[in-house]
Design a protein that fits this description.
Layout: H1 4-17, H2 25-34, H3 56-65, H4 77-90, H5 93-105, E1 110-113, E2 129-132, E3 138-144, E4 155-161, E5 172-178, E6 184-189, E7 198-208, E8 213-214, H6 220-236, H7 247-256, H8 263-290, H9 298-321, H10 346-352, H11 363-374
Parallel strand pairs: 1-4
Antiparallel strand pairs: 2-3, 3-7, 4-5, 5-8, 6-7
Helix pairs in contact: 1-3, 2-5, 4-5, 4-6, 6-9, 7-9, 8-9, 9-10, 9-11
Length: about 400
């Protein structure tokens, strides 16, 4: 069993063999992965050592203190937070060895082809079809939407319908899609911020080898649940310091600009500060639970809290700044590589936070998940649960 002392020694050995100041960034990250110090809870040979997830901060602190490069996690959040744990759980040994290393180092960015124009909140109603031909490959046709980072991605995690004669949750299969394959078209979706970090993706006779299928045929919904639960944890359970995240610029403005203060704003800021701290500590508890098992429905509650808090904090910041809060830096259509909440102005934070209650599962869907799976309340009536997908009204 790997312990903290051994991890420190391994990390220091890595730093001695590959001094960050004199080592190419990508070479260092590859060496870190090969040393099992990428994500220590993963198996040996796949970037880990089979250690407890709770020991990763020990490695991270040693590396940060030595000035080692990171793998730019915000740029490849879907790969790191969603694709990787799904590949680890359901991928073959060959798939794990092919995809996990370049995913972790950031050499290959990933996106998520789940939501569709007619299947957003009701994801299981998706209509993108995958039909197997005589060669054994799958031919995929359909449209996906709200695809973050598709314009940057090398690979995508994709769910498609492979049997329309089964109820909607059953005839779905999970694939890895090559975003450079013929028939994949990415179009920008301009958002309220003026940017286009989201995309719509059109799939026209896209050929996917069966070797890029994750899990069994028709078991895609179960595989997708691993992705979705990890998505909500990665969105709502990020590790941030005290007074970090969205509350930080508001508190900083409050301290630096006393002329903006009012008793009402003071009371509201105190309330949101306390709520931000509660969410931060709850996220820490969730990460401790993850150290001993897979993510559960509790991540949905964290994501709900994250979305509501971001929207309320950003609204308070705009009000606190008065006329300045109405300014916005740039309406130019851009294709950003990441979402930077704290590095932009108050207007951007206010506008971008509106999407937090949609992305990663709408608030309405997540409230149902919390009610049914966390609180044990009766499930909503679902009249289409046992109806073949092809017979559903659309």
């Amino acid at each position: 069993m790997t312990d903290a002392a051994e991890l420190r020694e391994r990390t220091r050995s890595l730093l001695a063999a590959h001094p960050p100041a004199g080592t190419d960034r990508l070479d260092f990250l590859r060496a870190q992965f090969d040393a099992g110090l990428a994500w220590v809870h993963y198996p040996e040979g796949l970037g880990g050592l089979g250690a407890s997830r709770s020991l990763q901060p020990i490695v991270d602190a040693e590396l940060q203190g030595a000035g080692a490069p990171d793998n730019d996690p915000r740029r490849n959040g879907i790969g790191l937070g969603m694709a990787a744990p799904t590949i680890l759980r359901y991928g073959t040994e060959g798939q794990q060895r092919r995809y996990l290393r370049p995913l972790w180092t950031g050499e290959e960015v990933w996106c998520q082809l789940f939501s569709e124009p007619g299947a957003g909140s009701d994801l299981a109603a998706l209509g993108t079809r995958a039909v197997r031909d005589e060669s054994g490959d799958w031919i995929v046709n359909g449209q996906k939407v709200w695809t973050s980072g598709a314009h940057l991605a090398r690979w995508a995690i994709l769910i498609a319908r492979t049997d329309p004669d089964l109820p909607k949750h059953q005839g779905i299969t999970y694939f890895i899609c090559d975003m450079t394959a013929p028939g994949v078209e990415v179009r920008p979706l301009r958002q309220i911020t003026g940017e286009a970090e989201f995309n719509e993706v059109f799939l026209t006779d896209v050929r996917i080898p069966d070797a890029r299928r994750l899990g069994e045929i028709g078991d895609g919904w179960r595989v997708a649940q691993t992705t979705l639960m990890n998505e909500r944890v990665s969105i709502g359970g990020m590790r941030i310091p005290r007074e970090g995240g969205m509350i930080n610029p508001v508190v900083r403005t409050w301290r630096e600009r006393p002329e903006l203060r009012t008793p009402d704003l003071h009371q509201r800021l105190l309330t949101l500060w306390v709520e931000a701290e509660v969410v931060r500590l709850t996220g820490e508890r969730l990460r401790q639970q993850l150290a001993v098992g897979q993510p559960g429905p509790e991540g949905s509650g964290m994501k709900l809290a994250f979305a509501r808090l971001n929207q309320e904090i950003s609204g308070l910041e705009v009000e606190l700044r008065g006329e300045e809060g109405l300014f916005y830096d740039d309406w130019t259509l851009r294709r950003p590589e990441l979402v930077d909440f704290t590095g932009r102005d108050a207007g951007y934070r206010y506008l971008r936070a509106k999407g937090n209650s949609i992305e990663g599962g709408t608030n309405e869907v997540l409230l149902n998940i919390v009610a049914e799976r966390v609180l044990g309340l009766p499930a909503e009536p679902r009249t289409d649960k046992d109806v073949a997908w092809k017979d559903l009204s659309r």
